[in-house]
Specification:
Layout lengths: L5 H10 L2 E7 L9 H9 L3 E7 L6 H13 L3 E4 L8 H11 L5 E7 L5 H9 L20 E6 L2 E5 L12 H6 L9 H14 L3 H6 L6 H12 L11 H13 L14
Parallel strand pairs: 1-2, 1-4, 2-3, 4-6
Antiparallel strand pairs: 5-6
Length: about 260
């Protein structure tokens, strides 16, 4: 899987008039890149932080995250690319920061935050290819220039993984589940977080009412009939990949409450 290099991003940011950093509202702290934000500052470009996937959290949670980030001195708004909510506000914000046409907006951020989906939502039609899982067909590999309206362009970029990304977010977004040499540890960390923030997450996704992450993987493998041929032990690696995929598809559902951060 190809991710954006910092050099490519620097060039893109330098040539853009406005930069949109797309963040996953389920976990804004771990899907924001301070390094990216500092780079935008260094080039003296206008930055908008866009909290995407707001259809997955209550309205009050979206509002609170926006206020927190605003309080840090950023331009911020929340949208749902999937439901096409908040796109009018975002469009207005961009035009306020880039009053003279023609202008271009670089859309940057962590993998799988919905960068391409936001561009499509603003365009009102598809054009930027999208995909649910890192590395699966449709993920963004190179820069792509898309027209939103005459004189208003957006540049779609591949996701970037900063070093400060944090565990396990950087791992599970940085590679396709198949490419992970050890999917079990990140999947266990993910399950722990899921249960911490949504006690019903595992019951709702798999009908398994167990709280020990390793045990959950074993039970899921048994449930799906995944066993090692050699010793007939549950194939926990396959269960781990499934858990990671289900997080990307938001079937394994949780979000980090803003209160945690205040
Ligand atoms: N629930 C929900 N899912 C979304 C939303 N926006 C995007 N997604 C989903 O998130 C996944 C990733 O979307 P993309 O637009 O491909 O994300 P990306 O940031 O361009 O991904 P890369 O180019 O691979 O870095 C897809 O499965 C989308 O359907 C949203 O507003 N709500
Ligand atoms: Mg993309």
């Amino acid at each position: 899987m190809e991710l954006a290099s910092w050099r490519l991003l620097a060039r893109t940011v330098k040539n853009a008039d406005v930069v949109v950093e797309v963040v996953d509202i389920r976990d804004p702290v771990h899907t924001r890149s301070r390094r990216l934000e500092r780079m935008v500052e260094a080039f003296d470009k206008q930055l908008i932080i866009v909290l995407n996937k707001s259809d997955l959290v209550p309205y009050s949670v979206a509002e609170k995250w926006a206020r927190i980030i605003e309080g840090q001195g950023f331009e911020v708004t929340y949208v749902s690319a999937r439901k096409r909510l908040g796109t009018r506000v975002l469009r207005g914000m961009i035009k306020r920061l880039a009053p003279v046409k023609p202008f271009s907006v670089a859309v940057v951020g962590y993998p799988k935050t919905g960068k391409s989906s936001i561009i499509n939502a603003l365009r009102g039609r598809k054009g930027a290819s999208t995909s649910p899982i890192p590395g699966s067909p449709g993920y963004t590999r190179t820069l792509q220039l898309l027209k939103i309206e005459p004189g208003f362009y957006m540049i779609d970029t591949p996701g970037v993984i900063p070093i400060e990304g944090g565990w396990p977010e950087a791992i599970i977004r940085g590679r396709s589940p198949e490419e992970l040499s050890d999917p079990v540890r990140p999947a266990m960390a993910l399950l722990e977080r899921a249960l911490k923030y949504n006690p019903r997450a595992v019951v709702d996704a798999y009908g398994i009412s167990e709280r020990d992450p390793y045990r959950i993987l074993e039970l899921l493998a048994v449930k799906r009939g995944w066993f090692y041929k050699s010793d007939h032990e549950p194939l926990v690696e396959e269960a781990a990949r499934t858990v990671i995929r289900d997080y990307h598809k938001s079937k394994l559902f949780f979000y980090v409450p803003p209160e945690e951060y205040l």
